[in-house]
């Protein structure tokens, strides 16, 4: 076999379709050691004394280049806690808090005049991601977050995972603001959740896992998005597109330029979000 790019680094005569989640070298089935996320090569499992020399700055790294932590779900727990805390605050304060934090482009609220993102209240693009309107709404979203979040956090690392979540949520808000009528309200973590779902598909493809379960789940959720009433499909699609794009840039970044490519990917996503917001604000101005 002449194409070394698809051969196991320990067995050059064997085809390798999987990369080690730590060192990113290709490994054949005989060298694949199952780990919490993906597979590792025998030398990475054995630790620094395994005989292979790693780059000085690599250490134990996730598939996206992040650090491993004792609690791979800490950020997910914090995000979940914030959503629950905001839900409890809404129950305690009332709907007035919802009207001050939910997303809409422009709308007259009682005697306060015009309010909304077009009036400079850009914070609504983010605060609306942590609002929910019913027990079923927050229950389904938080269950999805708890199911999708920890594996992605373990694979991406805390900082990259947090960036993925926030950019996905902002992407959903931005597309909603751009397309939906300015007086229609939108709230919920669904855009961010769809971003995590898209990132899961990207990660599974990167690790050469069976794509059928996640694709079936994605198709099912898209069917619900466009058939159920009172669902902001713009938030779902915006979050899905941004989350998938950010995840692709993170897990496919070359090792030598990984951080630069990942920062560029996140910056490009943020720039696209800002462009949608500015375009819509100009239209409503």
Automatic annotation (TrEMBL):
Keyword Calcium on entry: no
Alphabetized GO MF terms: peptidase activity
EC class of the enzyme, as a word: hydrolase
Residues covered by the Peptidase S54 rhomboid domain: 120-251
Family annotation (SUPFAM superfamilies): Rhomboid-like (SSF144091)
Subcellular location: Membrane
UniProt xrefs under Pfam families: Rhomboid
Bilayer topology term: Multi-pass membrane protein
GO-annotated biological processes: proteolysis
InterPro entries named in the record: Peptidase_S54_rhomboid_dom (IPR022764), Rhomboid-like_sf (IPR035952), Rhomboid_protease_S54 (IPR050925)
Protein family (similarity comment): Belongs to the peptidase S54 family.
Protein name: Rhomboid family intramembrane serine protease
């Amino acid at each position: 076999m002449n194409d070394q790019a698809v051969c196991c680094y320990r067995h050059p005569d064997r085809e390798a379709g999987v990369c080690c989640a730590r060192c990113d070298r290709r490994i054949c089935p005989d060298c694949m050691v199952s780990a919490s996320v993906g597979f590792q090569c025998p030398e990475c499992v054995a630790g620094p004394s395994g005989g292979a020399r790693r780059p000085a700055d690599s250490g134990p790294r996730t598939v996206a280049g992040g650090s491993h932590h004792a609690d791979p779900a800490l950020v997910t727990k914090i995000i979940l806690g914030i959503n629950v805390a905001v839900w409890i605050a809404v129950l305690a304060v009332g709907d007035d808090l919802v009207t001050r934090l939910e997303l809409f482009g422009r709308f007259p609220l009682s005697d306060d005049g015009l309010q909304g993102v077009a009036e400079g209240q850009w914070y609504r693009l983010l605060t609306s991601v942590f609002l929910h309107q019913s027990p079923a709404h927050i229950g389904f979203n938080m269950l999805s977050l708890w199911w999708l979040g920890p594996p992605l956090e373990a694979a991406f690392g805390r900082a990259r995972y947090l960036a993925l979540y926030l950019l996905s949520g902002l992407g959903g808000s931005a597309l909603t603001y751009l397309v939906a009528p300015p007086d229609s309200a939108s709230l919920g973590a669904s855009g961010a959740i769809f971003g995590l779902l898209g990132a899961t598909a990207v990660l599974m493809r990167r690790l050469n896992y069976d794509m059928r379960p996640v694709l079936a789940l994605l198709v099912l959720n898209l069917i619900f998005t466009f058939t159920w009433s009172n669902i902001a499909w713009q938030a779902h699609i915006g979050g899905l597109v941004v989350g998938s794009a950010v995840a692709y840039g993170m897990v496919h970044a070359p090792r030598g330029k990984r951080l630069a490519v990942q920062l560029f990917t996140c910056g490009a996503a943020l720039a696209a979000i800002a462009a949608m917001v500015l375009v819509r604000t100009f239209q409503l101005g």
